[in-house]
Amino acid sequence: MSQTITQLQQLTSFLLQSLKGAIHTNNLDAWQERGTLIISGEDKGQDGYAVAKWKHTAVIAIEDFPHRKVNPYNLLAMVSAFLIDSDWPRDEYGLDDPEIDIDVVSKDNATVLIDVQLIDDIELIPADNGPVLFNDARYYVSLAPISIAEDVDVNIKGQS
């Protein structure tokens, strides 16, 4: 049973890969705070449900950021480019633009705090031993499968 990867995990992974060699993995920490649960209950078909969206502020802290080796504007561009490329519905959910605080600790290193509003889907899939009881059945959290037609037959009456 696979869990979904959160947007924060995606962004953090992207930054670690983009900054590989410039920062150590253990110098980057990330967490979620100040969240709002937006209840939905949408039936996704095949017994899957979108029960909510989790709108939150994600915080990414980078210690020992080598601001003289890596131009901090590169980091700002990385965050911006990732959010644009991700195609997440930021405007639709009123997500604020990221706030970034750079605290120069020494002539070579800085601590960078990135606050970015993100929104994750919370969807349920049926499972006999799932931890979530919903509609008198057991579920686990994942992305609900969606059937997409591979072929479509169209018959138009009156045309030969």
From TrEMBL:
Recorded superkingdom: Bacteria
Protein name in the entry: P2 phage tail completion protein R (GpR)
Upper taxonomic lineage: Bacteria, Pseudomonadati, Pseudomonadota, Gammaproteobacteria, Alteromonadales
